[in-house]
Write a structure and sequence with these properties.
The chain is α/β, with parallel strands linked by helices. The protein has one domain: Rossmann fold (3-Layer(aba) Sandwich), CATH 3.40.50.2020. Helix content is 32%, strand content 28%. The mean pLDDT is 89.
């Protein structure tokens, strides 16, 4: 078994019952310290020689990877919080983010954006939209799993994206 096959064994598929909706979960990866550490190392590797000020991530599983990567680089971590999903789901947008007032980046800051999964690109796009008003530079995006058939990379043209694992 290769390293990537081993890591892929920790990615679980969850089908919540909505036709066509498949969710990838990485929670079992977090229970295995060697696997989680390797995932963090592989997500960090492409950015070892990249200058940035903070790691930033959308809430939930993105926070987990981002915190570990921030510690690895001795950088701070900024968390993007989702707006009230009940309010925004009724308006057709589940990917609106805000940055708590006490952790706003400064104009000119360079950020590494991290998340667990890239599917349609909507979450990353929502993060980028939330950052626009701060006049910061996103130096790259690092994700653990990219779901290729959802074409998220295509929706994020012009953004440097690195994924550890690719799934169809």
């Amino acid at each position: 078994m290769t390293t990537k096959q081993w890591l892929k064994s920790f990615v679980k598929t969850y089908e919540p019952g909505e036709p066509g909706l498949v969710i990838k979960r990485i929670t079992s990866l977090l229970m295995e310290p060697d696997a989680f550490s390797l995932a963090v190392d592989l997500m960090s590797e492409p950015f070892l020689n990249t200058d940035f000020d903070y790691v930033i991530a959308p809430e939930a599983d993105g926070f987990t990877f981002a915190t570990a990567i921030a510690l690895k680089f001795n950088k701070g971590m900024i968390g993007l919080k989702k707006y009230d999903p009940v309010y925004y789901s009724s308006r057709g947008n589940l990917n609106l983010f805000d940055i708590p007032e006490d952790s706003h980046p400064k104009a000119g800051d360079k950020l590494l954006l991290v998340d667990d999964v890239l599917a349609t690109g909507d979450t990353i796009k929502g993060c980028l939209e939330a950052l626009e008003r701060f006049e910061v530079e996103v130096v790259g995006v690092s994700v653990f799993v990219e779901i290729m058939h959802r074409k998220g990379r295509e929706a994020l043209s012009g953004v440097k994206i690195y994924s550890v694992l690719e799934e169809e």
